[in-house]
Amino acid sequence: MLTINRDAITVSAKKPLIDWINSLDPLHPMQYRDQSNYDESTIYLIEELDTEKDFNEWIRENYLEIFEQELFSWITDDSKWPNPLHYALFSEWIQVSYQSLVMDQCPEHPIEYDDDL
Predict the structure, then answer these.
(1) Can you state the percent helix, strand and coil of the chain, rounding each to 5?
(2) What count of other Cβ atoms lies within 10 Å of the Cβ of residue 17?
(3) Among 21, 60, 13, 69, CA closest to 37
(4) Whole-angstrom Cα distance, residue 30 to residue 20?
(5) I want to staple 6 with a disulfide (CB 3.0 to 4.6 A). Which of 14, 29, 45, 101 is the partner?
(6) Where are the domains of the chain?
């Protein structure tokens, strides 16, 4: 097992985001508890950061791209998204967990990139 030169963040929906999604699609309501299930979060690999302050600065600079990707994964029509997408709304709707140690348990399988998203 090897460490890699990345940190990671785990991103998942908070209840206000689920409530908003349900308001747009009331025929297929989601339960908030679903977010703790397998494959209900997104993991982003990010640059290595040295301190909590560095992470806080990084997330403030990069939240919009993450927010848009998360919204797109639920609602592809961006005309239905809230406007503007500001940091306070991101913080209210999105749970972010920072991980400073990322291990590669299968270094024999090179990472492949898919830029279709």
Answers:
(1) 40, 20, 40
(2) 23
(3) 13
(4) 10
(5) 45
(6) 2-104
